[in-house]
Design a protein that fits this description.
By secondary structure, the chain is of the alpha/beta class. The chain has 2 domains: 110 residues, Resolvase, N-terminal catalytic domain (Rossmann fold, 3-Layer(aba) Sandwich), CATH 3.40.50.1390; 89 residues, no CATH class. 49% of the residues lie in helices and 15% in strands. It has 9 helices and 7 strands, in the order βαβαβααββααββααα. A 5-stranded mixed sheet has the order 2-1-3-4-5, sandwiched between helices. A two-stranded antiparallel sheet has the order 6-7. β6 and β7 form a beta hairpin. It is elongated, with a radius of gyration of 20 Å. It starts with a strand and ends in an 8-residue tail after the last helix.
Length: 219
């Protein structure tokens, strides 16, 4: 009997997990042929003070430890906020032979069916859209930086996190890409603001200001 992880998440206190619990467990029983006793529910109820997504981390950890045969989520937005994140998650699960089911979008990625034309197409599409998304992020970063450079606040004030000034113009600093990665994790509820501040050796106020300027980082 397959061992199945149903991952559910709400991002605000007024949201309810019941719909996700129902859809994922029903899917696991119907499509994965899982017995109710073999279904383990992993949950995150993220709020402004709890953004570490420990439930998701436990899901992935148990999957990579060989304790799970399939992961079921209600929708893409419950496990990822970008196609790049989704592709990375799918790749990690595939590397460890774990099926990945997303109920609302009717996505099933089965590592044991690599020869199936549909499965190959699904993986190719994820890769194509992830690459496209990366190109769009890079373009938005350039456009956002150009727009911000026209504002006096950036001409005369201190350089934003991850940037430095060169003759009055903003340029990417040595830690720019690390800043982008950390801010992306905060935005996606994968890292708390406190831990982000520790990693980037700055204050939480700086993290908050940077989150208000995400167009600078292509996020």
């Amino acid at each position: 009997m397959p061992r199945v992880a149903c991952y559910v998440r709400v991002s605000t206190p007024d949201q309810n997990l019941d719909r996700q619990l129902e859809s994922t467990t029903e899917h696991a029983e119907r499509e994965v042929d899982a017995d109710l006793a073999e279904i383990e529910v992993y949950r995150d109820e993220s709020t402004g003070t709890d953004t570490d997504r420990s439930g998701f981390q436990s899901t992935m950890g148990d999957a990579e430890a060989g304790e799970i045969d399939a992961v079921v989520a209600h929708s893409i937005t419950r496990v990822s906020r970008s196609i790049q994140d989704l592709e990375r998650t799918a790749g990690r699960l595939e590397d460890h032979g774990v099926e990945f089911h997303i109920v609302s979008e009717s996505i099933v990625l089965d590592p044991d069916s690599k020869d199936d034309p549909f499965q190959r197409a699904m993986h190719r599409m994820l890769g194509i859209f992830a690459e496209y998304e990366a190109d769009m992020i890079q373009q938005r970063t350039k456009e956002g930086l150009a727009a911000r450079m026209r504002e006096d606040d950036y001409s005369h004030g201190p350089a934003p996190l991850g940037f430095q000034k060169d003759d009055g113009r903003l340029v990417e600093g040595d830690e720019y890409h690390e800043v982008v990665a950390v801010l992306g994790m905060v935005r996606n509820d994968n890292l708390s603001k406190r831990k982000a501040a520790d990693r980037l050796d700055c204050g939480r106020a700086t993290i908050n200001r940077s989150l208000d300027r995400l167009e600078l980082y292509g996020l």
